[in-house]
Amino acid sequence: MSALLMDLRRNRLMMSYLIVGGLILLILVAGGVLSDRFLTWRNVTNVLQQLIVLGLVSLGQTFVVLMGGIDLAIGSLVSAVTVFLANFLDWRPDLVWLAVPLALAAAAAVGAVNGILTVVLRVHPLIVTLGMSSVIFGGTLMYRKEPGGSIPRALEDIAYRNVGGIPVSAIVLVVVFAIAGLWLQRTRAGRNIYFVGGDAEAARLNGLAVGRITVMAYALSGLCAGIAGLFLTARTGVGDPRIGAALTLQSITPVVVGGTILAGGRGGVFGTFLGVLLVTMLNSLLNFVGVSSYYQWIIQGVIIIVAVGFHTVRRT
Amino acid sequence: MAPLEATLPKSRKSVSMAAIFERFGLAIFLGVLLVAAALLSPTFLRPANLVNVLTIAAPLGMVVVGQAFVIMVRGLDLSVASLMATVAVLATAFKATSNDAIPVIFLAAIVISALVGFVNGWLVAKRNVSPFLATLAMMIILQGVRFAYTGGAPISTLPPGMSFLASGRIWGIPVNLTTLAVMAVVLSIVLHRSRLGRKIFMVGSNPKAAFLNGIAPDRVTIACYVICSVCAGIGGLFLLGYVGTVSNWVGQGYELDSIVAAVMGGVALSGGRGTILGALLGVAVLVVINNLVLLLGFPIEMQLIIKGIIIVGAAAFYRTRLV
After folding, report:
1. B122, B127, B256, B305: best to mutate for the A interface, most A CBs within 10 A
2. Are B213 and B3 in contact (CB under 8 A)?
3. Interchain contact, B147 vs A297, CB within 8 Å
4. pLDDT tier, A16 (very low <50, low <70, confident <90, very high otherwise)
């Protein structure tokens, strides 16, 4: 029976992988037909370079959603990291080796606090992370209202460097996703995330430290947001208190498009990766065709509804 | 019928301190806050400041009474702020220069809002989409529609009478407060005295039991989303009257504020609990705190930090109190 359920789960995910993969192919074909520059190596590297930020925040969101939660503090956290890095490095550019680990550790710590608050106060993660987002955003704005600060050239390099024509950031992203996927599937800690997301009560009765796993998922999400903030600072060269604002919502789209269910316990990072590819390529195509970002918002909203509607119908 | 009884006020026999605190805690807190505000800042009690506070409170109050309905059925509406701005932009679409257009603007706003609320409710109730995602997507879509129409630039062709909504008085009483009071009374009657209200409490506390009792939870849920959106739409027009020009971001932040106020006012996110009066008390507390932050000379960003702490704190407080 459980093998059958497992099979169904796999099939359902396979279905969404096939659909998303098909859509990606469709975009490639449409791009090739509609524009003679879309399939050039130059644009391909461009798209690959853009993947990293959305990819990382969506990966973080995937951990949390799989565990049955949601993280709405991601955008504020990304902004805060860019502001911190740009301010710190403007002051002491020689201390990159200190600033970067400090920023990442702080981001992971904020994530952990989100987890701890949901566990200890037993308040819905939506409220906890929404509140946290407000606190971080307020704090960041008190620190810096307008974009500014600077970073050393060496750091800017990580956003733009290519190896064999392929952007380093894209390689980093693929490696990170591969590790995350293996970790979720093959290690006990990773599988525990699925157990808690599937049924927290059953997980508790089976002796899992549900609280600790929850905190771990949120800490990972915070860490991912931190690394995303690092790459974003490297690309823009400044700290901007509002740059991440839109990322909170954008981080959710690839997760649900990729077949991970908001109720938790089902899905995976591979789907999220496909989702990130789809969203980024779609945006690139729409830009090429000259569709304004306003219509891109509408399309994004419709995609969320269609994707979620599709998965919900399959679930029931 | 157990869930219904659980939500109704208990008989007056048992009056404990805890019960009093639970019932009147927020009112007491508001009282303390008002006294503290008066002591801390000499400006607070000045009529100009109080009028200012109330003017800001009115549109938020309108959104909150609607938001309360959605939260009551275990939902959440993140699209209210986007709807407010969209309705405001819609109001300029008439390019009206005379006040004759105001009733038409109101009618159009209510119709559009009701439609938006219906789609939200339909997605949640019939398609089983989580309220969070459905209203989030609606928020982005409305935003896209709005920007596509305005091209990103603010517009300001409005009937001159729109400002009456914010600063007008009839017999010395501000129009916006009268409107809010009327909305609150009507919605309170709907919630606490009507058949629909009883159904809302039942669906909110236990949808399955409600279904087994012959209630169609889907319809009740959709009704709540429609009420919420219409309230937000009306609130959007009053806010527009206050700010005068339409920016694409009118009302930004109202989604968080409305949820904070409702939750602080005792409307439980787990559904089936709360009162309109409580939600309005929540508004009062939030607005006074915001005002105090400014009067005491703290940076305005401090409001965001305090709001964040309040929402988590209030949710935790009511969770341990009521569950």
Report:
1. B305
2. no
3. yes
4. confident
CA B63 to chain centre: 3
CB contact under 8 A, A127 and B311: yes
Contacts for B206 with CB less than 8 Å, ≥ 6 apart: B3, B272
| CA B11 – CA A138 distance, rounded (Å) | 45
pLDDT of residue B94: 82
Q: Are B123 and A309 in contact (CB < 8 Å)?
A: yes
- For residue B92, the distance in angstroms to the closest alpha carbon of chain A comes to 19
Q: Which comes out higher in pLDDT, residue A57 or B210?
A: A57
DSSP code at position B45: T
ipTM of the prediction = 0.84
Measured between alpha carbons, how far is B60 from B248 in angstroms, rounded to an integer? Answer: 18
Residues of A in contact with B316 (CB under 8 A): 121-123
Kindly list the residues from chain B whose CB atom is less than 8 angstroms away from the CB atom of residue A301: 137-141, 144
Interface test with B, best of A77, A142, A146, A294 (most B CBs within 10 A): A294
Q: Does B99 lie at the interface with A, CB-CB under 8 angstroms?
A: no
The partner residue sitting opposite B140, judged by closest CB among A123, A249, A292, is: A249
For testing contact with chain A, the best of B74, B129, B303, B318 (most A CBs within 10 A): B129
Sign of the dihedral defined by the CA atoms of residues A277, A282, A287, A292, in that order: negative
Q: How does pLDDT run across A273-289, given as a tens digit for each residue?
A: 999 999 999 999 988 88
Instruction: Please classify residue A211 by burial: count the beta carbons closer than 10 Å to its beta carbon, then call 0-12 exposed, 13-18 middle and 19+ buried.
Output: middle
* DSSP string for residues in chain A: -HHHHHHHHHHHHHHHHHHHHHHHHHHHHHHHHH-SSTTSHHHHHHHHHHHHHHHHHHHHHHHHHHTT-----HHHHHHHHHHHHHHHHHH-GGGHHHHHHHHHHHHHHHHHHHHHHHHHH---HHHHHHHHHHHHHHHHHHH-SSSB----HHHHHHHH-EETTEEHHHHHHHHHHHHHHHHHHHSHHHHHHHHHHH-HHHHHHTT--HHHHHHHHHHHHHHHHHHHHHHHHHHHSSB-TTTTTTHHHHHHHHHHHTT--TTSSS--HHHHHHHHHHHHHHHHHHHHHT--HHHHHHHHHHHHHHHHHHHHHHH-
Please say if the pLDDT value at position B245 is more than 90.
Answer: no
3-state secondary structure (DSSP) of residue B142: helix
Q: pLDDT value at position B207?
A: 85
Q: CA–CA separation, A220 vs A173, rounded Å? A: 15
With an 8 Å Cβ cutoff, is A246 touching chain B? no
Chain B residues 263-292 within an 8 A CB cutoff of chain A = 263, 269
Cα nearest neighbour of A70 on chain B? B132
Judged by CB atoms closer than 8 Å, whether chains meet at A128 and B141 is answered as: no
Q: What is the pTM of this model?
A: 0.86
Residue-level pLDDT at A10: 62
- Per residue in A147-186, pLDDT (tens digit) is 999 999 888 888 888 888 889 999 999 999 999 999 999 9
pLDDT, tens digit, 9 for 90 and up, residues A70-96: 999 999 999 999 999 999 999 999 898
The chain-wide mean pLDDT, for chain B, equals: 86
B308 CA: distance to closest CA in chain A (Å): 4
